[in-house]
Amino acid sequence: MVFAKKIGVPLKYCTNCLIPSTKPHITFDDHGVCSACLSYLNRPNIDWKKREELFLKIVDDVKKNKKKNNWDCVVPVSGGKDSTYQALKLRELGLNPLCVTSTTCDLSDLGKKNIENLKQQGFDYIEFTSNPKVRKKLNKIGLEMIGDISWPEHISINTIPINVAVKFGINLIIWGENSQDEYGGPEKAAKAKELTWEWLLQFAGFVGLRVSDVEGMYGLEKKDLIPFSYPSEEEIKKAKIQSLFLGYFFQWDGYKNYEYVSKHGFHTYDKTVEGSYGNYENLDNHQTGIHDYFKFLKFGWGRATDILSMMIRRKKISRDEALKIVKETDGKYPIFYLGKPLKKILSDIEMTVEEFDKICDKFTNKDIFLCNNEGKLIKDENKSLIKKNYDN
Q1: What are the C-alpha distances in Å from 107 to residues 78, 132, 276, 286, 312?
Q2: Helices (H), 66-150
Q3: How far is residue 334's CA from residue 297's CA, in Å, rounded to a whole number?
Q4: pLDDT of residue 196
Q5: pTM tops 0.90, yes or no
Q6: Which of 144, 151, 169, 306 has the fewest C-beta atoms lying within 10 Å of its C-beta?
Q7: Please, are residues 121 and 264 in contact by the beta-carbon 8 Å criterion?
Q8: How many whole angstroms separate alpha carbon 131 and alpha carbon 64?
Q9: pLDDT tens per residue, range 353-386
Q10: How far is Cα 43 from Cα 363, in angstroms, rounded to an integer?
Protein backbone atom coordinates (compact mmCIF):
# COMPACT_ATOMS: atom_id res chain seq x y z
CA MET A 1 0.00 0.00 0.00
CA VAL A 2 1.33 3.42 -0.93
CA PHE A 3 0.06 6.81 0.13
CA ALA A 4 -1.25 9.06 -2.61
CA LYS A 5 0.50 12.29 -3.50
CA LYS A 6 -1.78 15.18 -2.64
CA ILE A 7 -0.60 17.63 -5.30
CA GLY A 8 0.74 16.84 -8.71
CA VAL A 9 0.30 17.39 -12.42
CA PRO A 10 -1.48 15.58 -13.86
CA LEU A 11 -3.84 14.07 -11.31
CA LYS A 12 -3.66 10.33 -10.78
CA TYR A 13 -6.90 8.38 -10.53
CA CYS A 14 -7.91 5.04 -9.10
CA THR A 15 -7.74 2.42 -11.84
CA ASN A 16 -11.02 0.89 -10.68
CA CYS A 17 -13.16 3.96 -9.88
CA LEU A 18 -12.71 7.70 -10.47
CA ILE A 19 -11.35 8.92 -7.12
CA PRO A 20 -8.19 11.06 -7.53
CA SER A 21 -4.97 11.04 -5.57
CA THR A 22 -5.80 14.42 -4.05
CA LYS A 23 -8.54 12.99 -1.83
CA PRO A 24 -7.51 13.42 1.83
CA HIS A 25 -6.57 10.15 3.56
CA ILE A 26 -6.83 8.09 0.35
CA THR A 27 -4.23 5.42 -0.40
CA PHE A 28 -3.56 3.22 -3.44
CA ASP A 29 -2.16 -0.28 -3.80
CA ASP A 30 0.56 -1.24 -6.25
CA HIS A 31 -2.06 -1.68 -9.00
CA GLY A 32 -3.44 1.82 -8.53
CA VAL A 33 -6.65 0.73 -6.78
CA CYS A 34 -7.83 3.12 -4.06
CA SER A 35 -8.51 2.16 -0.46
CA ALA A 36 -12.27 2.78 -0.86
CA CYS A 37 -12.44 0.18 -3.64
CA LEU A 38 -10.25 -2.23 -1.68
CA SER A 39 -12.53 -1.92 1.35
CA TYR A 40 -15.57 -2.65 -0.79
CA LEU A 41 -13.89 -5.58 -2.58
CA ASN A 42 -13.20 -7.11 0.84
CA ARG A 43 -16.85 -7.09 1.89
CA PRO A 44 -17.63 -10.62 0.62
CA ASN A 45 -14.91 -11.89 2.97
CA ILE A 46 -16.67 -10.43 6.02
CA ASP A 47 -18.89 -12.63 8.17
CA TRP A 48 -21.91 -10.32 8.17
CA LYS A 49 -24.05 -12.73 10.14
CA LYS A 50 -21.49 -12.73 12.92
CA ARG A 51 -21.37 -8.92 12.88
CA GLU A 52 -25.16 -8.70 13.09
CA GLU A 53 -25.12 -11.05 16.07
CA LEU A 54 -22.44 -8.87 17.69
CA PHE A 55 -24.56 -5.77 17.17
CA LEU A 56 -27.64 -7.39 18.68
CA LYS A 57 -25.55 -8.58 21.64
CA ILE A 58 -24.24 -5.04 22.25
CA VAL A 59 -27.77 -3.64 21.97
CA ASP A 60 -29.14 -6.29 24.33
CA ASP A 61 -26.48 -5.45 26.92
CA VAL A 62 -27.22 -1.73 26.62
CA LYS A 63 -30.97 -2.30 27.01
CA LYS A 64 -30.42 -4.44 30.12
CA ASN A 65 -28.18 -1.84 31.76
CA LYS A 66 -29.96 1.35 30.70
CA LYS A 67 -31.89 3.56 33.06
CA LYS A 68 -35.54 2.65 33.37
CA ASN A 69 -37.96 4.60 31.20
CA ASN A 70 -35.24 5.77 28.85
CA TRP A 71 -34.59 5.48 25.13
CA ASP A 72 -32.37 2.67 23.88
CA CYS A 73 -30.15 4.89 21.75
CA VAL A 74 -29.67 8.25 20.08
CA VAL A 75 -29.85 8.32 16.28
CA PRO A 76 -28.45 11.45 14.62
CA VAL A 77 -30.80 12.30 11.74
CA SER A 78 -31.02 14.96 9.05
CA GLY A 79 -34.13 13.74 7.25
CA GLY A 80 -31.92 12.48 4.42
CA LYS A 81 -32.13 9.02 2.90
CA ASP A 82 -29.42 7.46 5.07
CA SER A 83 -30.50 8.74 8.47
CA THR A 84 -34.14 7.95 7.68
CA TYR A 85 -33.02 4.41 6.86
CA GLN A 86 -31.04 4.22 10.12
CA ALA A 87 -34.03 5.13 12.25
CA LEU A 88 -36.36 2.70 10.47
CA LYS A 89 -33.77 -0.12 10.50
CA LEU A 90 -33.14 0.26 14.22
CA ARG A 91 -36.85 0.14 14.97
CA GLU A 92 -37.08 -3.05 12.87
CA LEU A 93 -34.41 -4.51 15.15
CA GLY A 94 -36.55 -3.77 18.20
CA LEU A 95 -34.93 -0.58 19.47
CA ASN A 96 -36.70 2.52 20.73
CA PRO A 97 -34.47 5.33 19.39
CA LEU A 98 -34.48 9.03 20.16
CA CYS A 99 -33.94 10.83 16.85
CA VAL A 100 -31.81 13.98 17.15
CA THR A 101 -31.39 16.64 14.48
CA SER A 102 -29.02 19.58 14.42
CA THR A 103 -30.86 21.83 11.98
CA THR A 104 -29.28 22.43 8.59
CA CYS A 105 -27.78 25.88 7.89
CA ASP A 106 -30.02 26.83 4.94
CA LEU A 107 -32.84 24.31 5.13
CA SER A 108 -34.64 23.65 1.84
CA ASP A 109 -38.36 23.04 1.49
CA LEU A 110 -37.55 19.48 0.46
CA GLY A 111 -35.47 19.06 3.60
CA LYS A 112 -38.39 20.28 5.70
CA LYS A 113 -40.69 17.75 4.03
CA ASN A 114 -38.33 14.86 4.72
CA ILE A 115 -37.79 15.83 8.35
CA GLU A 116 -41.56 16.03 8.82
CA ASN A 117 -41.93 12.68 7.05
CA LEU A 118 -39.47 11.05 9.44
CA LYS A 119 -41.37 12.41 12.43
CA GLN A 120 -44.62 11.07 11.00
CA GLN A 121 -43.10 7.59 10.75
CA GLY A 122 -43.57 7.52 14.52
CA PHE A 123 -40.40 8.49 16.39
CA ASP A 124 -39.58 10.58 19.43
CA TYR A 125 -37.65 13.47 17.98
CA ILE A 126 -35.48 16.35 19.20
CA GLU A 127 -34.62 19.15 16.79
CA PHE A 128 -31.96 21.66 17.86
CA THR A 129 -31.55 24.98 16.06
CA SER A 130 -28.56 27.11 17.01
CA ASN A 131 -28.72 30.91 16.95
CA PRO A 132 -29.21 31.73 13.23
CA LYS A 133 -27.18 34.95 13.52
CA VAL A 134 -24.23 33.02 14.98
CA ARG A 135 -24.63 30.25 12.41
CA LYS A 136 -24.42 32.71 9.50
CA LYS A 137 -21.24 34.22 10.93
CA LEU A 138 -19.75 30.74 11.20
CA ASN A 139 -20.77 29.95 7.61
CA LYS A 140 -18.90 33.06 6.49
CA ILE A 141 -15.86 32.34 8.67
CA GLY A 142 -15.70 28.76 7.41
CA LEU A 143 -15.86 29.90 3.79
CA GLU A 144 -13.27 32.64 4.22
CA MET A 145 -10.77 30.72 6.36
CA ILE A 146 -10.90 27.12 5.14
CA GLY A 147 -13.14 27.20 2.07
CA ASP A 148 -15.99 25.31 3.77
CA ILE A 149 -19.31 27.11 4.13
CA SER A 150 -20.72 23.98 5.81
CA TRP A 151 -18.17 23.96 8.65
CA PRO A 152 -20.69 24.73 11.43
CA GLU A 153 -23.07 22.06 10.13
CA HIS A 154 -20.34 19.42 9.99
CA ILE A 155 -19.39 20.23 13.58
CA SER A 156 -22.88 20.38 15.06
CA ILE A 157 -24.13 17.15 13.46
CA ASN A 158 -21.56 15.50 15.73
CA THR A 159 -21.70 17.70 18.84
CA ILE A 160 -25.48 17.94 19.31
CA PRO A 161 -26.24 14.16 19.38
CA ILE A 162 -23.37 13.54 21.78
CA ASN A 163 -24.47 16.35 24.09
CA VAL A 164 -28.05 15.00 24.02
CA ALA A 165 -26.82 11.51 24.91
CA VAL A 166 -24.83 12.87 27.86
CA LYS A 167 -27.66 15.11 29.11
CA PHE A 168 -30.32 12.37 28.87
CA GLY A 169 -28.11 9.56 30.15
CA ILE A 170 -28.42 7.47 26.96
CA ASN A 171 -25.48 5.11 26.61
CA LEU A 172 -25.62 4.31 22.90
CA ILE A 173 -25.37 6.43 19.73
CA ILE A 174 -25.87 4.78 16.33
CA TRP A 175 -24.29 6.57 13.38
CA GLY A 176 -24.54 5.58 9.72
CA GLU A 177 -21.60 4.51 7.58
CA ASN A 178 -17.96 4.83 8.56
CA SER A 179 -16.89 7.45 6.00
CA GLN A 180 -13.31 6.19 6.05
CA ASP A 181 -14.52 2.77 4.91
CA GLU A 182 -17.15 3.94 2.41
CA TYR A 183 -15.10 6.72 0.82
CA GLY A 184 -11.54 5.61 1.54
CA GLY A 185 -9.23 6.34 4.44
CA PRO A 186 -6.52 4.93 6.71
CA GLU A 187 -6.93 1.19 7.19
CA LYS A 188 -7.29 1.32 10.98
CA ALA A 189 -9.94 4.07 10.80
CA ALA A 190 -11.76 2.30 7.95
CA LYS A 191 -12.07 -0.92 9.97
CA ALA A 192 -13.37 0.81 13.10
CA LYS A 193 -16.77 -0.22 14.40
CA GLU A 194 -16.90 2.62 16.91
CA LEU A 195 -16.75 6.37 16.50
CA THR A 196 -14.15 7.16 19.16
CA TRP A 197 -12.92 10.48 20.51
CA GLU A 198 -9.78 10.14 18.39
CA TRP A 199 -11.88 9.40 15.26
CA LEU A 200 -13.97 12.50 15.93
CA LEU A 201 -10.96 14.78 16.23
CA GLN A 202 -9.36 13.47 13.04
CA PHE A 203 -12.32 12.99 10.70
CA ALA A 204 -15.36 14.86 12.05
CA GLY A 205 -15.28 17.92 9.82
CA PHE A 206 -13.01 20.40 11.61
CA VAL A 207 -10.81 20.81 8.48
CA GLY A 208 -8.05 22.30 10.59
CA LEU A 209 -10.31 24.90 12.24
CA ARG A 210 -11.18 24.40 15.90
CA VAL A 211 -14.14 25.97 17.66
CA SER A 212 -11.77 27.85 19.96
CA ASP A 213 -10.14 29.45 16.89
CA VAL A 214 -13.27 31.38 15.90
CA GLU A 215 -13.88 32.94 19.31
CA GLY A 216 -13.56 36.71 18.91
CA MET A 217 -14.20 36.70 15.16
CA TYR A 218 -17.16 38.84 14.04
CA GLY A 219 -17.85 39.51 17.71
CA LEU A 220 -18.43 35.86 18.60
CA GLU A 221 -18.15 34.98 22.28
CA LYS A 222 -17.64 31.65 24.00
CA LYS A 223 -21.33 31.52 24.92
CA ASP A 224 -22.23 31.73 21.23
CA LEU A 225 -20.31 28.54 20.51
CA ILE A 226 -21.93 26.21 23.05
CA PRO A 227 -23.81 24.15 20.38
CA PHE A 228 -20.54 23.52 18.52
CA SER A 229 -18.60 22.27 21.55
CA TYR A 230 -18.21 18.67 22.65
CA PRO A 231 -18.62 17.46 26.19
CA SER A 232 -15.20 16.85 27.66
CA GLU A 233 -13.55 13.49 27.06
CA GLU A 234 -13.99 12.82 30.79
CA GLU A 235 -17.75 13.52 30.58
CA ILE A 236 -18.11 11.14 27.65
CA LYS A 237 -16.19 8.40 29.46
CA LYS A 238 -18.18 8.95 32.65
CA ALA A 239 -21.42 8.67 30.68
CA LYS A 240 -20.16 5.32 29.30
CA ILE A 241 -21.38 6.15 25.82
CA GLN A 242 -20.78 3.76 22.95
CA SER A 243 -20.87 5.30 19.47
CA LEU A 244 -21.30 2.64 16.79
CA PHE A 245 -21.29 2.72 12.99
CA LEU A 246 -24.34 0.86 11.70
CA GLY A 247 -22.42 0.27 8.46
CA TYR A 248 -19.88 -1.88 10.30
CA PHE A 249 -22.55 -4.40 11.26
CA PHE A 250 -24.79 -4.30 8.17
CA GLN A 251 -23.65 -3.89 4.56
CA TRP A 252 -24.02 -0.24 3.60
CA ASP A 253 -25.44 0.85 0.26
CA GLY A 254 -26.68 4.43 -0.16
CA TYR A 255 -28.85 3.61 -3.18
CA LYS A 256 -30.50 0.65 -1.45
CA ASN A 257 -31.13 2.95 1.52
CA TYR A 258 -32.90 5.33 -0.86
CA GLU A 259 -34.99 2.52 -2.37
CA TYR A 260 -36.00 1.47 1.15
CA VAL A 261 -36.99 4.94 2.41
CA SER A 262 -38.80 5.79 -0.83
CA LYS A 263 -41.39 3.24 0.30
CA HIS A 264 -41.78 5.21 3.53
CA GLY A 265 -42.68 8.65 2.22
CA PHE A 266 -39.21 10.02 1.41
CA HIS A 267 -39.31 12.95 -1.05
CA THR A 268 -36.80 13.49 -3.88
CA TYR A 269 -35.85 16.39 -6.19
CA ASP A 270 -37.76 16.65 -9.47
CA LYS A 271 -34.54 16.48 -11.52
CA THR A 272 -30.85 15.65 -11.14
CA VAL A 273 -29.36 17.65 -8.29
CA GLU A 274 -27.05 20.40 -9.54
CA GLY A 275 -23.39 19.30 -9.60
CA SER A 276 -24.35 15.76 -8.67
CA TYR A 277 -25.72 12.55 -10.15
CA GLY A 278 -29.20 11.43 -9.21
CA ASN A 279 -31.99 13.18 -7.35
CA TYR A 280 -32.08 11.47 -3.96
CA GLU A 281 -29.28 12.82 -1.76
CA ASN A 282 -28.02 16.13 -0.33
CA LEU A 283 -31.52 17.58 -0.55
CA ASP A 284 -31.77 19.50 2.71
CA ASN A 285 -29.25 22.36 2.47
CA HIS A 286 -29.05 25.05 -0.22
CA GLN A 287 -25.40 25.62 0.74
CA THR A 288 -24.35 22.09 -0.22
CA GLY A 289 -23.69 23.14 -3.81
CA ILE A 290 -21.08 25.62 -2.55
CA HIS A 291 -19.54 23.03 -0.26
CA ASP A 292 -19.20 20.49 -3.07
CA TYR A 293 -17.85 23.13 -5.45
CA PHE A 294 -15.03 23.99 -3.07
CA LYS A 295 -14.11 20.31 -2.83
CA PHE A 296 -13.75 20.41 -6.60
CA LEU A 297 -11.63 23.58 -6.47
CA LYS A 298 -9.30 22.19 -3.80
CA PHE A 299 -9.04 18.56 -4.86
CA GLY A 300 -10.43 18.20 -8.38
CA TRP A 301 -13.44 15.99 -7.79
CA GLY A 302 -17.06 16.55 -6.83
CA ARG A 303 -20.29 14.90 -5.76
CA ALA A 304 -20.92 13.16 -9.10
CA THR A 305 -17.52 11.44 -8.82
CA ASP A 306 -18.37 10.19 -5.33
CA ILE A 307 -21.74 8.73 -6.34
CA LEU A 308 -20.56 7.24 -9.62
CA SER A 309 -17.48 5.70 -7.99
CA MET A 310 -19.75 3.90 -5.54
CA MET A 311 -21.87 2.72 -8.48
CA ILE A 312 -18.74 1.45 -10.28
CA ARG A 313 -17.77 -0.61 -7.23
CA ARG A 314 -21.22 -2.15 -7.20
CA LYS A 315 -21.09 -2.96 -10.96
CA LYS A 316 -24.05 -0.66 -11.69
CA ILE A 317 -22.13 1.35 -14.29
CA SER A 318 -18.89 0.98 -16.20
CA ARG A 319 -15.94 3.21 -15.42
CA ASP A 320 -15.93 4.56 -19.00
CA GLU A 321 -19.62 5.49 -18.90
CA ALA A 322 -19.23 7.07 -15.45
CA LEU A 323 -16.29 9.11 -16.72
CA LYS A 324 -18.42 10.60 -19.51
CA ILE A 325 -21.04 11.69 -16.97
CA VAL A 326 -18.43 13.17 -14.61
CA LYS A 327 -17.00 15.30 -17.40
CA GLU A 328 -20.46 16.76 -18.04
CA THR A 329 -21.59 17.13 -14.44
CA ASP A 330 -18.79 17.48 -11.88
CA GLY A 331 -17.56 20.78 -10.53
CA LYS A 332 -19.75 23.27 -12.39
CA TYR A 333 -19.92 26.80 -10.98
CA PRO A 334 -22.89 26.68 -8.53
CA ILE A 335 -25.30 29.10 -10.21
CA PHE A 336 -28.21 27.38 -8.41
CA TYR A 337 -28.62 24.65 -5.83
CA LEU A 338 -32.00 22.96 -5.43
CA GLY A 339 -33.35 25.84 -7.49
CA LYS A 340 -32.16 28.62 -5.17
CA PRO A 341 -29.93 31.22 -6.90
CA LEU A 342 -26.34 31.61 -5.70
CA LYS A 343 -26.83 35.35 -5.16
CA LYS A 344 -29.66 34.67 -2.68
CA ILE A 345 -27.74 31.89 -0.90
CA LEU A 346 -24.79 34.25 -0.41
CA SER A 347 -26.91 37.25 0.58
CA ASP A 348 -28.16 35.23 3.55
CA ILE A 349 -24.60 35.30 4.95
CA GLU A 350 -24.00 38.92 3.83
CA MET A 351 -21.61 38.08 1.01
CA THR A 352 -21.64 39.27 -2.59
CA VAL A 353 -21.00 37.09 -5.63
CA GLU A 354 -17.85 39.13 -6.32
CA GLU A 355 -16.51 38.41 -2.83
CA PHE A 356 -17.40 34.74 -3.30
CA ASP A 357 -15.49 34.55 -6.60
CA LYS A 358 -12.36 35.95 -4.97
CA ILE A 359 -12.56 33.31 -2.25
CA CYS A 360 -13.04 30.63 -4.91
CA ASP A 361 -9.84 31.70 -6.67
CA LYS A 362 -7.99 31.82 -3.35
CA PHE A 363 -8.72 28.16 -2.61
CA THR A 364 -8.34 26.79 -6.16
CA ASN A 365 -5.46 24.39 -6.70
CA LYS A 366 -3.92 25.72 -9.92
CA ASP A 367 -2.01 22.47 -10.42
CA ILE A 368 -5.36 20.88 -11.32
CA PHE A 369 -6.90 23.49 -13.64
CA LEU A 370 -5.90 25.27 -16.84
CA CYS A 371 -4.38 28.74 -16.53
CA ASN A 372 -3.28 31.30 -19.13
CA ASN A 373 0.29 32.49 -19.66
CA GLU A 374 -0.09 34.97 -16.79
CA GLY A 375 -1.13 32.18 -14.42
CA LYS A 376 -4.76 33.28 -14.30
CA LEU A 377 -7.42 30.58 -14.16
CA ILE A 378 -9.27 29.98 -17.43
CA LYS A 379 -13.05 29.94 -17.01
CA ASP A 380 -15.91 29.29 -19.43
CA GLU A 381 -18.91 31.56 -19.99
CA ASN A 382 -20.54 30.17 -16.81
CA LYS A 383 -17.38 30.72 -14.72
CA SER A 384 -16.66 26.99 -14.53
CA LEU A 385 -12.99 25.90 -14.53
CA ILE A 386 -11.33 23.47 -16.93
CA LYS A 387 -9.52 20.48 -15.48
CA LYS A 388 -6.21 19.44 -16.97
CA ASN A 389 -7.14 15.76 -16.93
CA TYR A 390 -10.03 13.54 -15.87
CA ASP A 391 -8.24 10.22 -16.13
CA ASN A 392 -4.80 8.64 -16.09
Answers
A1: 10, 12, 18, 7, 31
A2: 81-92, 109-120, 132-146
A3: 12
A4: 78
A5: yes
A6: 169
A7: yes
A8: 38
A9: 999 999 999 999 999 999 999 999 999 999 999 9
A10: 36
